[in-house]
Amino acid sequence: MTPRSFTDHVLSLEAQLSPAERRVAQHFRDHREEVLLASAAELARKAGTSDATVIRTVRTLGYDGLDAMRRAIAQELRRHLSPAARIARTLHEIGDDLDAVFNATLDLHAASIVALKQKIRPAQFRMAVDHALRADRIAVFGIGPSGAMAGYLAMQLGRFGIDTMTLSDTGLLLADRLLNLRKGDLLVVMAYSRVYPELRALLDRADALGLPKILVTDTLGPELAGRVELVLDIPRGRADTISLHTATLAFIEAWLVGIASQRKAQTVEALGELNRLRAAVAGPDLSL
Questions:
Q1: Taking the CB of residue 76, how many other CB atoms lie within 10 A of it?
Q2: N or C: which end of the chain has fewer CB within 10 A?
Q3: Which domains does the chain possess?
Q4: pTM here?
Q5: Distance, C-alpha 250 to centroid of its chain
Q6: Phi then psi for 138, rounded to 5 degrees?
Q7: Which of 97-101, 185-189, 202-206 has the lowest average pLDDT?
């Protein structure tokens, strides 16, 4: 069954809304992309009402809070827009003037960082670091563009002296990697949009081994929250434009620094050994 659209959901509850709430709900319908990033105060100002009315409208529409409604809208937008449609919309908005392209793209990246700071709470960051410190090994899953980030994260952790493995294969090749998972691993999963077969098999294998899991996503949190220990809701830009991985990479860098800060001696020792090995391979001039 096709899920009911956000617009249809709002219209079905319109009779239960006060005039002020109806005005806010209409703003939600007409500016879905804006809702994904704007604060309650910003939405209230644009709808000509108060923060309290915005929050009350969200709850009357059946959501636990603004973040829950954002996730529902983001899922719908990503479900109905292909990568080609998102890049087409992005290019239509920014035009072909290269100065405008450069500035608009940087603005999108900056907005992603602001959204990251709003969405990831200090307690979540500490929990992510604690999970890493307790793990015997960290296994990182990502396919497509996320596979490159999974490889980068695993490489950097390895340089810090932390045992890692990467899972970025698809289809039958993934089965060999799943076989190598073992008790004591921490599984870091970067996944978006839908629960595809590889992701389902990965979670099932991790459940069978009793592995703790961290999910990095911007859409799958509500669907998979019960299967993972920690959901990190990290935005990839506006759901109707090209996906940007700025915020994901920024979180990875922060997480790496956080882990290193809690195991300083081991990190410095491992990087020193890396330098010695580089010098042995390429000579002292390449010892960094």
A1: 19
A2: N
A3: 6-80 (1.10.10.10), 122-279 (3.40.50.10490)
A4: 0.72
A5: 11
A6: -115, 120
A7: 97-101
